[in-house]
Sequence to fold (339 residues):
Amino acid sequence: MSIELPPRIPLALLPTPLESCERLSAEWAGPRIWMKRDDLTGFEMSGNKVRKLEFHFAAARDSGADTVITCGAVQSNHCRATVLAAARLGLRSIIYLRHAGEEPPEPTGNYLLSKLGGGEVRLITPSQWAERDALMAEAAAREAAAGHVCWVIPEGASDALGMWGYVLALREVADQAARIPGKPPVIWHAASSGGTTAGIGWAVDRLGLDFPIVACSIGDPAAHIREKVETIWDEAARATGAAVPAMEIHFNDAHIGGGYGVVDDDELAVQAQATALTGVILDPTYTGKALTGLRREIQSGQYSGDDNVVFWHTGGGFAALAHDFSRIVAAEGPASGTA
Fold:
């Protein structure tokens, strides 16, 4: 079945490769692990967010916008990609960043790159974060009064427009997975704002693929992420006149640990081990935590040697530079992670 897509502006380097992680598979003694390398969508705009932004920036262009407004955490991959995409296209960018400390955050990782890219940063507290959509709408109104045309992009570009980025991405995987022998692969990915999950699920349903999907939460309860995905699907169904997908996604919240952005030493050790076995850099908040979840599921016997798992690397390597791995590597070496 063909899927019609809205207009998009090419920003990402596509398609990204699907690679076999032979050493990781052997060390973890479980399924054959494959990695979808969306950390290779480009350097400055690496990660899953740029796929969604291709559709949002096309809509912004068509609306005549000269300014984009969005939000995220201080180390937001999405905000970094939005600022740098705006810079490439000659647009202004305003970003609302959630920050809990009393002092301004250190300019490291994604936060540093967002500032270098010319983003107008507005720090907000966790309580203000609950009103982020209203804050962005108010900012757009103020900018409009000053003569600007704004396009507001929700958290993570996770809505019925951004979703199409991962509908397109899943079509890439469907073609690439044809070379995977044996069972259809499980699609395992980090889940938070719901847009990536929604796009993957929509495409699997529409294309009639037999790919089980695991949305591994990195902070929120499973029910919360399910609700986000279903809201996006409902919005997309109304916009297209299509039916809401009937396929079932497994929302796994067993590995959120201390919550969003909280990473303990055991989780960092697994991530360091994975990097030592693959040469791939992981973002501790998203991909690192999701891969730790996969490791624990393998240890519990969830997957066996005749299973295939596609671990979707959704990018975010810059955020690794904002975490302290030194004590993990110095203590016992990265190949010893056992969480």
